[in-house]
Amino acid sequence: MNGNLTPKQISRALFEADPMNTSCRENDCLDEYDYVAQAVADRLIEGWSLDRALVTEVSEWFFNGEQFDVSRLTLAFKLIREEWP
């Protein structure tokens, strides 16, 4: 099921949730999370769970691989899961 998510769907959910508070919605920066979304989609194709892929990639891109408060991703997870058939 996870492998069916496209980078566009993931990026859109991240844009709507803006878990890193980049103000992308206010600035209409629709591609703000494209690079993270592509990396997550690649991980899903490799068989990773959505949770593991998203947490890992957000950690890598925004926190230099360090741990962070994953509750920041709650809305993003909800929106992404709504994309599933």
How would you portray this structure in words?
The structure is a single chain. The chain is mostly helical. The protein has one domain (about 1-80). It has 4 helices and no strands. The protein is globular and about 35 Å long.
Quick summary of this structure?
This protein is 54% helix and 0% strand.
β content, as a range?
A: under 5%
What are the secondary-structure elements, in order, as H or E? Answer: HHHH
Largest sheet: none
Mean pLDDT comes to: 91
Spatial separation of the terminal alpha carbons: 8 Å
Number of domains: 1
Q: What Rg, in angstroms, do the CA atoms define?
A: 12 Å
Derived structural class: mainly alpha
The unreliable regions are none
Overall 3D shape: globular
Q: How helix-rich are the residues, as a percent range?
A: 40-55%
Q: Count of DSSP helices?
A: 4
Question: How many DSSP-defined strands?
Answer: 0
Secondary structure elements and pairings:
Elements: H1 7-17, H2 34-45, H3 50-63, H4 74-82
Helix pairs in contact: 1-2, 1-4, 2-3
Keywords:
85 residues; globular; 0% strand; mainly alpha; single chain
